[in-house]
Amino acid sequence: MQNSSDFSDSEIVKDIEYVKKLQEWINDNDFFSKMKKGFSAKRDGFNSKNWHKAVDGKGKTLVIIKTKDNFIFGGFTQVGFNGNTGYIKDSNAFIFSLRNDKGDRIPANFTHNGKNRAIYSGLNHGPWFGSGSDFILESNLQPGYSDFGKSYNLPNGITYDTNETKSYLAGSYDKWVVDEVETYFI
């Protein structure tokens, strides 16, 4: 794996504004100077077991998802995924939207609301952020689900459990198709 500090090996993060925002939000020069793309669904397969094999136990983890409709979003956790089944606490975790159909509100990041369920680790699922599945990818990393706002703070003026929150990250609650998943860690 080559160093990926500038996302030059990314098929998703091509806009310098996105790179700058991710660097600003994560605010960890050590992470960016050493990070590597450890998983790509197109390269390694659309399979949660492959994803967990690549990312479990790595610590700080950045997940970036692109849908077929060109929504780009993801999450960052300081503690990472561990392969054990269950929720994991991480008060520094956040999710983000780099591109959606809400234009004026992005790029934007959303902090965890402080409860214990920042991420979920389990071999039968891919990346899972939030207790109410703020976003989750199933075993073949398809389909995805997004119930944004259950565990992560919403943008001002948006109410939880509405069509707007269910479509904010990926365009719909469960009708979105993943084009690529990239996962970075040290």
Automatic annotation (TrEMBL):
Pfam families in alphabetical order: TLD
Residue ranges of domain TLDc in the record: 11-186
Superkingdom in the source lineage: Eukaryota
Protein name: TLDc domain-containing protein
Protein source organism: Anaeramoeba ignava (Anaerobic marine amoeba)
The organism's taxonomic lineage, starting at the top: Eukaryota, Metamonada, Anaeramoebidae, Anaeramoeba
